Amino acid sequence: MNSIQDTAVPPLGSHSADSGASSATATLAGTSPRLYNHDLAPTQREGRKWSAYSIFTLWANDVHSLGNYAFAIGLFALGLGGWQVLAALGVGAVLLFALLNLSGFMGQKTGVPFPVMSRIAFGIHGAQIASVLRGGVAIAWFGIQTYLASVVLRVLLIALAPGLAPLDQGSILGLSPLGWIAFVALWIVQVVIVSYGMEMIRKYEAFAGPIILVTMLALAVWMFAQAGFEIAWSTDKSLSGGEMWVQILGGGALWVSIYGTFVLNFCDFTRAAKSKGAIVKGNFWGIPINMLLFGAITVVLAGAQFKINGQIITSPSDIVAGIPNTFLLAGASAALLVLTIAVNLMANFVAPTYALTNLFPRHLDFRKAAIVSAVIGLVILPWNLYNNPVVIVYFLGGLGALLGPLFGVIMADYWLIRRGRVNVPALYTEDAAGDYHYVKGVNLRAVAALVPAAAVAIAIAFIPVLGALAPFSWFFGAGIAAVNYWFIADRKRTFTDADGEEIAVPSAH
């Protein structure tokens, strides 16, 4: 293969005037244009920019998302007291810390995004199964989260300019005129950020992280003061004994399931990490430490509200809506918008962008794929999906149940079978003798391990009689898939370990 100096390949995520489809098809000798472009290429180790702080700010944003607060407050509503909520989140945090390190190390070593990482276990073409499943779930949630953020923006606009209220009447394809204005405005903001690549996402996350932490802490202090500096540590339906521990363990398991998407494609971010140490340090402060802070804020918010009037809030946005001062309400609402955009970018925009780039590497670079992802997220009219329980529970829930089995196969293949040995250049060749060609580009053993595990995960998630196991469906799916693959994987293969520096591109992350 030629060295990187022999062929001019633009930096990852860069978009100069001569980049785009033409540069996307400029591949190095030995690589296939169906598998390689400058966004899918491995990143050079020299010049990687994601530090421990960069990784910490990912979690500083995502952990404090409105959806996570709704989940944690739900544990309080189910009858868990303050320390029990913290215990449930602590169980989930410890498990996540371990899983995210395993996933993150893969990205740091190879420098490749998730769709390419999937080729190791599923084959150069079979990897489309994993990337499309992950990307499909993310595109739908990108649209839904943008819609939910637009609701906050709509309320904020009316609070600041009451004359806009008439625009919030009527319906055009399910949204009022003001609803459309708010949605499209936030949609454009996110498209602009992502169009500048992963480096801009890194900068936005670093900017948003401190804002979110300060805002949530301020809300907690304000509510604590409103409650007379006392909170209720539990509701009148406080659980105890075995039932309490089932809820604690179930809450911890669901906490891991919520991050089932991230533990799968964390390598999209850590492929630009400076070192394994940066990953561990960023995850340590961002997961167990940050999640304990998140849990404390949750307990104060829910406990203070219950102390005041015996009611349980559903989200911090309920508290923000009740702020009597318009200026403070506007500031808090703006912070929630900053938060929602940050969460959406990292959780729901990067994955489908790489998935589409992987599907059409000769035609789509990162920017073009991001725009296509965003357009799909718009044309599906996500507010109608959100308001349709069948779609949310069965379609998106069903796809989500498949993420555990995918994780199980990929982790078992990488850590247990190969023991971390990866031939990175072979991930980009269609040579029939290539390490990841398998059978016409598909590892049928990985698919065979995936299918029964996916069936079990979906059954546990949806069959009422198995409802008691539902919180643990991710673990059942991941565990069964890993065990299946352990027994049927081909151990006679030679596992070569080769870095991708020869075909790598400068990281613009």
From TrEMBL:
Region (Disordered) residue ranges read 1-25
- List the biased-composition ranges (Low complexity): 13-25
Keyword Transmembrane helix present in the record's keywords: the answer is yes
Work out whether the entry's keyword set contains Membrane: yes
Question: Which InterPro entries does this UniProt record tie to the protein?
Answer: Pur-cyt_permease, Uracil/uridine/allantoin_perm
What membrane topology does the UniProt entry give?
Answer: Multi-pass membrane protein
In Pfam terms, one family for this protein is Transp_cyt_pur
Q: Which UniProt keywords apply?
A: Membrane, Transmembrane, Transmembrane helix
Family membership: Belongs to the purine-cytosine permease (2.A.39) family.
Q: Which PANTHER family does the protein's record reference?
A: NCS1 FAMILY NUCLEOBASE:CATION SYMPORTER-1, NCS1 FAMILY PURINE/PYRIMIDINE TRANSPORTER
Protein name per Swiss-Prot or TrEMBL: NCS1 family nucleobase:cation symporter-1
Organism of origin: Sinomonas halotolerans
